[in-house]
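Handout, page 2. Input:
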Amino acid sequence: MNTTFWIIFLIIGLAIGWLVATYYSRKSAQSKANIIIDEATREAEVIKEKTILKAREEEMKIVTDAERSASQRLSKVQSAEARAKQRDMQIKEQQQELQRRKKELDTRTSNLEAKEQAADERHNELENLVNDARAELERISGLSVEEAREKLVESLKDEAKTQAAAYINDIIDDAKLTASKEAKRIVIQSIQRVATETAIENSVTVFHIDNDEVKGRIIGREGRNIRALEAATGIEIIVDDTPEAIVLSGFDPVRREIARLALHQLVVDGRIHPARIEEVVAKVRKQVEEEIIETGKRTAIDLGIHGLHPELIRMVGKMKYRSSYGQNLLQHARETANLCAVMASELGLNPKKARRAGLLHDIGKVPDDEPELPHALLGMKLAEKFKEKPEICNAIGAHHDEVEMTSLIAPIVQVCDAISGARPGVRREIVEAYIKRLNDLEQLALSYPGVIKTYAIQAGRELRVIVGADKISDEETEQLSAEIAKKIQDEMTYPGQVKITVIRETRAVAFAK
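Output:
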């Protein structure tokens, strides 16, 4: 019984405790819920206020933008109205100006019509007067109008012929003077604009060696090496007492160059015997041939000449090893070509054709065979053979007057060839002739009275004459220099010009004892 009571009591206590706990838990949850509701309410109020403020700000912004756009539109409308008013004013002013001009034009038109009417009346009066005067002239002269016109025309023709003849003579004289000046100007400008090197070639080449022991090896046993070398090159090899030098003699510069290069290779290699000599000479000859072709091609490229036949290119390259009076033939041809181009340009002709003719004008000096023809004619035939143009061929053949000139390029080539060959210092004279010319200069000046000493300097381009101060005055020195210059011009032949300088010195000498 007691146990049951306590179990029931315990159950009742637990139930009461659960009820109490449930009540307090519900009360706590309700209080929390109230708190959450209050916070949510406050937050909702805050959000509501923020939303209202934002809406009001947006409303203010919209209103402000609307007012701004309205003010902008208003200002645009006002400016458009102002422009429209200004245009209206301008249109009114233009209309007024047009009306004023129209009135002026109407006035001028009426004035012109009146003037035209008056001019017609005057013209009629003048025609009547001219007819009356013509009739009176016919009555007085006894000639009709046609007869009088014919006589007047005849007299005017005679007068015009006389005046034209005199005018033509004046023009011809002036043209002669002008042509001479113009020709001199063109020649001088052509010479001044062209500058080329001048190479002096001789008939011998000196081959330098390190020591004289090499001479014996070049000669070989019983002279077999030197004979083989001479037979292979066609050049005379002179081995004498000249220290450290061997002379290669021959009139063919190409052969001399082959002999020099072959000898150089043999000496450097050290193997000198007839078989080796023939091998080296053959190899060097091939190298020189290739260099000749390369030189011809490079020359044509440098001068801007295209389409040359390969054989003509080879002949141009061979000019490098030829000389004329000491002037290198290739340099002479290049110089002549450039002079021709410059002169043709000055005269309004084709400079390319002139340059081509100038380069090829001396190819007759370097043929593979030696025909009995002047080099100008031979060069013309070679140019014709290799399909050069007729004016080029004629210029080559006519530059020494062997054939008649048929084109304007021919005299240009002839003149430029003379310019290149005759300018001072370009060609080498024979030593005896050179010394004789200097002696003749000095002796010619010594023949004048009062001359004490004469000196030909600068290779004969200047002659200094020293006179005695007690025999010739200062005024007479000028006359003496002019007389010497005139006598040199009349009696001597020389390249370029000779400057004559007469020197007169007065010396006072005293001795202090």
